[in-house]
Design a protein that fits this description.
The protein contains 20 helices and 15 strands. With 453 residues, it is an alpha/beta fold. The structure holds pyridoxal-5'-phosphate (PLP).
Length: 453
């Protein structure tokens, strides 16, 4: 399988190269040249598989440059770090309401599904090519923690995560800075997330520096992340009762459109998922798009569901590529307009598959309380955005993207109970090792020169 750029001006790559490259040199995002199709017979054959086995069956159609037995072993290893036997349990709340729990990985958020696998893919690449790799990323919280736990202690790799000091949640910071692993570098800058990103951008733009350190980015547009996320939709579909699975709406708390894009791609591969609800917080660029067709940059307002606080949905371009009939020239034109004017109006795209909702900070605690009263279920603030206005005319499955234990303050204010998780309690007792530095590229460059592998 080859991978092409949404903007059509970059050479196609094999799976491992597309994963290592991240953003295509023409500024586009990689997608499979063709999407495999899963038949009803395939799905029947998949039903008895364990999560790692199912993941292997799925990924083997895409990672065609990795020997199958190697891929199988990498996948098996990636999900041994999850604490639930089902990996992604489907919980039934009532006849028409289900939850897909995606928070049983090491950092208690859904990003572990992709980043545990990505870490092992990077580790494998180091071993195969006999090279080291330095992974660099900026984070406002969950991505950094999940990326660090994907690479923790892996020979030949080092990971540098830059975050705004004092602006991630204390538990998120502990997940990044209390690992004790010598290949992990938690870099706290005096500045905002945007300052962190600007410094990173400057380093990635320096080809010489980038090549010398074999730098790789960790961000939400990586191809492997999207593909790994398709698997839990397939898994959930197969676990749902026969009468429900073809009718159910997948309700997806999202910001960068990464999570919901994965489900939609799976639908394009022939798996009969009925539809998706794009559930945003008050940073609602996607809600506005799917209700009015208007795609317009807004200012970010920090919210109680911080992992969805985004200005622009970076993965939207992949959806756009298909929406305009796989026409890279059209994608370039639209992205150019969007870049210069900060807005684009879509006309007549198919709204049958998607609905949308937005949830303000004022609403989140009330929803957490209501879900607790109705079902005895504790939803984290991101998941709570999904529980807003569940469909009356069809069953719903809400993707629970984080454990409530990661956001104790909001949960306590909503229901008066402090959620706890053993892995977070352990972290509270560990020493915190972070490196404070100014928010500029020179400081970051000097740090990498001294610590890169
Ligand atoms: C990252 C994240 C999201 C949003 O994911 P997208 O890639 O923007 O769809 C939602 N919830 C949690 C807890 C997250 O960490």
């Amino acid at each position: 399988m080859r991978y092409i750029s949404t903007r059509g001006l970059a050479p196609s790559l094999g799976f491992s190269d597309a994963v290592a490259t991240g953003l295509a040199p023409d500024g586009g995002l990689y997608l499979p040249e063709t999407l495999p199709q899963f038949t009803a017979a395939d799905l029947e054959g998949f039903a008895p598989l364990s999560y790692p086995e199912l993941c292997f069956e799925f990924m083997s159609r895409f990672a065609t440059d990795i020997p199958p037995e190697t891929l199988r072993a990498l996948i098996a290893k990636s999900y041994t770090t999850f604490s639930h036997a089902d990996i992604a349990p489907v919980v039934k709340l009532d006849e028409r309401t289900y939850v897909l729990e995606l928070f049983h990985g090491p950092t208690l958020a859904f990003k572990d599904f992709a980043l545990q696998l990505l870490g092992n893919l990077y580790g494998n690449q180091c071993a195969v090519r006999g090279q080291t790799i330095n992974v660099l990323g900026a984070t406002s919280g969950d991505t950094g923690a999940a990326a660090i736990h994907g690479l923790l202690g892996k020979p030949g790799t080092a990971i540098f995560i830059v975050y705004p000091d004092g602006r991630t949640s204390p538990l998120q910071e502990r997940q990044m800075a209390c690992t004790g692993a010598s290949n992990v570098h938690a870099l706290a800058i005096t500045g905002t997330f945007d300052d962190a990103q600007a410094a990173l951008k400057e380093l990635f733009a320096d080809q010489e520096f980038r090549t010398r350190h074999r730098l790789s980015a960790v961000n939400s547009i990586n191809l492997a992340r999207i593909l790994a996320q398709c698997v839990y939709y397939l898994w959930a579909y197969l676990r749902l009762p026969a009468g429900v699975r073809d009718e159910i709406e997948f309700v997806v708390p999202t910001g960068n459109f990464g999570n919901v894009l994965a489900g939609w791609l799976l639908q394009k591969m022939g798996v009969p998922l009925r539809g998706f609800r794009v559930a945003t917080n008050q940073n609602d660029i996607l809600h506005r798009l799917f209700t009015t067709g208007d795609y317009r940059v807004g200012a970010v307002a920090p919210s109680l569901a911080p992992s969805m606080d985004i200005q622009v949905s970076s993965n939207f371009e992949r959806f756009l590529y298909y929406s305009v009939g796989q026409n890279p020239a059209k994608v370039r034109e639209i992205m150019e307009t969007f870049k210069t004017t900060g807005a684009y109006t879509f006309e007549g795209f198919n709204r049958d598959t998607f609905t949308a909702s937005r949830c303000t900070d004022a609403e989140i605690p009330g929803i957490i309380r209501q879900v607790y009263q109705d079902f005895g279920y504790v939803a984290d603030p991101h998941t709570a955005c999904g529980f807003k206005a569940l469909a009356k005319d069809r069953p719903s499955i809400v993707l629970a993207t984080a454990s409530p234990a990661k956001f104790p303050d909001t949960i306590v204010s909503a229901i008066g109970i402090e959620p706890k998780h053993p892995s977070l309690e352990v972290l509270k007792a560990r020493p915190l090792v972070k490196h404070l530095m100014p928010a500029d590229a020179a400081a970051l460059r000097a740090y990498l020169d001294a610590h890169a592998v």
